[in-house]
């Protein structure tokens, strides 16, 4: 709006003159749109690596929240890595909640049953049960 220009007349005195500056043209540029989109395979690999390196409950739950926030259902490999991470840090409840999140995220009941079939060996190996199996 107002720029301040200082003009020195004498070495001892300064005079301040308020001048109106001309508005400059601003050009908005969106830098984020120049990045290539992440493919489903890259998404899956990124989260599998993330869950393989999880060391505490906070990181596990943060990763699950981020993963399930996308507009897609995570791959079986991601769910398996998350279940193994939950068991590794001894967090049974979060492991069981992975199945609850899948049940909410899928569109059809048959999709949820397909995930249960695909994850059955991991469930049995780690001893994690679903909410329905626990009777809750």
What does it look like?
- The termini are far apart.
- Helices cover 55% and strands 10% of the residues.
- Strands 1-2 form a two-stranded antiparallel sheet.
- Helix 3 packs antiparallel against helix 4 (92-105).
- Residues 1-19 have low confidence and may be disordered.
- The protein is mostly helical.
- It is globular.
Could you report the average pLDDT, rounded to the nearest whole number? Answer: 83
Strand order in the sheet with the most strands: 1-2
Major sheet: 2 strands, antiparallel
Shape verdict: globular
Global structural class: mainly alpha
Number of strands: 2
Tally of DSSP helical segments: 6
The termini sit apart by 64 Å
Which regions are unreliable across 5 or more consecutive residues at pLDDT < 50?
Answer: 1-19
Approximately how much helix is present in the residues? Answer: 55-70%
Percent range for β-strand residues: 5-15%
Q: Taking Cα atoms only, what radius of gyration do you get, to the nearest Å? A: 28 Å
Keywords:
136 residues, globular, 55% helix, 6 helices, mainly alpha
